[in-house]
Design a protein that fits this description.
Protein name: Bacterioferritin
CATH topology: Ferritin
Number of strands: 0
Number of helices: 6
Organism: Afifella marina DSM 2698
Helix content: over 70%
Cofactor: heme b
Largest sheet: none
Function: Iron-storage protein, whose ferroxidase center binds Fe(2+), oxidizes it using dioxygen to Fe(3+), and participates in the subsequent Fe(3+) oxide mineral core formation within the central cavity of the BFR protein shell.
Strand content: under 5%
CATH class: Mainly Alpha
Keywords: Heme, Iron, Iron storage, Metal-binding
Length: 164
């Protein structure tokens, strides 16, 4: 089934965004693990799996519509400097996805591609949930201070606090 040019364009852009997010989150997860922030690194592995599934769904739809997926091109990936930078990067990426997927869903619907519309709407919900998580973490860092927040994200330190 040949998809409309509008749908194929949006599905390709979404695939690029998701593959970039997967690679960004892998780098962030590895940095967190390297820094010893194991509880947050574990949470990041869950996010990587979700983003990988998003990429898989966009790729599957693109192939179904007889598109020619580009899985080589990625957007720029920032090196994580600290926890605040990681959350800032994630918030920006997820907000970009929300903005783009909202527009893409509308344009796919207008082009008569309800399947792609539904896909964008479903993934849009997941992206909104992740923004909520990131905002919650940023709020906690602000309330607790970075050091206490980080201490709660390190298993050995968090276990000592729970024993007290």
């Amino acid at each position: 089934m040949k998809g409309s040019d509008v749908s194929l364009k949006h599905l390709q852009r979404a695939l690029t965004m998701e593959l970039t997010t997967v690679n960004t989150y892998i780098l962030q997860e590895r940095k967190l693990d390297d820094w010893g922030v194991d509880r947050l690194a574990k949470r990041m592995r869950e996010e990587i799996d979700e983003e990988r599934e998003h990429a898989n769904l966009f790729l599957t739809r693109l192939l179904f519509l007889e598109g020619k997926p580009d899985v080589h091109t990625l957007d720029k990936i920032d090196q994580p400097k600290d926890i605040a930078h990681i959350f800032k990067t994630q918030a920006a990426m997820e907000q970009e996805a929300i903005d783009y997927y909202s527009k893409a869903a509308q344009e796919c619907q207008e082009a008569g591609d309800i399947g792609s519309f539904n896909l964008f709407m479903t993934i849009l919900g997941d992206e909104e949930e992740h923004v909520g998580f990131v905002e919650e973490q940023q709020d906690l860092m602000e309330m607790l201070g970075t050091q206490l927040y980080l201490a709660r994200q390190i298993s050995s330190v968090a276990a000592e606090e729970e024993d007290d």
